[in-house]
Amino acid sequence: MRIDIHTHIIPEQLPRWSEKFGYSGFIHLEHHKPCCARMMKDDEFFREIQSNCWDPVKRIEECSSAEVDVQVLSTIPVMFNYWAKAEDCLEISKFLNDHIADVVSRYPKKFIGLATIPMQEASLAVREMERCKKLGFAGVQIGTNINDLNLNEQRFFPVYQAAMELNMALFVHPWNMMGTRQMDKYWLPWLVGMPAETNRAICSLIFGGVFEKFPALRFAFAHGGGSFPGGVGRVARGFEVRPDLTAIDNDIDPRRYLGHFYVDSLIHDEKFLHYVIELLGADKVCLGSDYPFPLGESKPGEEIERLQLDNHQKGKLFYQNALNWLNLDKKRFELA
Ligand SMILES: [Zn+2]
Asked: Which CATH number do you get for residue 310?
């Protein structure tokens, strides 16, 4: 069995939110030819997408040729809209979540849902998370920063508290990348900014003591934890030599959190994937492909296959760790 924890989906039709809310910056879709659409931010082209971005039947077809049994669905991070008015973001989140809930309810053995929530206003985020719990979501996806605020900010604690109480998993995905304006060229926000963002999120949660305050929260981080696994030595050294700067909110060695959280397997480097499995544990890395986007793994799990693990270990990476992170039972996905 294979569960891909990192895949993105969007409804085929989006309302014109800029017109509805009376200010710009929202994404809409232009279906300019069959099976293809342009994601537009007002008049500005953002990304070309294909029907596998919205059509569950197409996705199931592609999954079966890639030998993926189940996809965990989350929105495309550009749809977070944390910058917008909180009530408007709530309305958009509901629209996107209702779409995911509908897809999951039509194909419950093929898809698992992660919700998006208006993180700029914790009370609304909690309310939407509660609603999504009732709709059958297994967790929520959040950004690595919220309008440039790090994830250890106290204003986000009600969200963590609610996620813990509701038994919802958290998937942390880079967005609103630091340095975007300064390194606009060469796709650097994606190539350099995204891994740095994930490192930023993990370090903020460690040093901010969030893993201590909410020990039962089940976090997973995209892209193999970004640049955290490669940088953890430096982080631990910083903790050792400058506790006056690093240990002000949590005096526990950052290395103690290795194995506390999950990451996906999307690293594009076999040796480094092997290292990440050693560093975080074979029960903390889950298959994740970033389907259907080109920076993802085109045949999900190919890199895990190349590691030549025994079947027991492979089973963990391919599905068991995902089930543990999401707190789901394998039986749900077995054929009757
Ligand atoms: Zn992604």
From this structure: 3.20.20.140
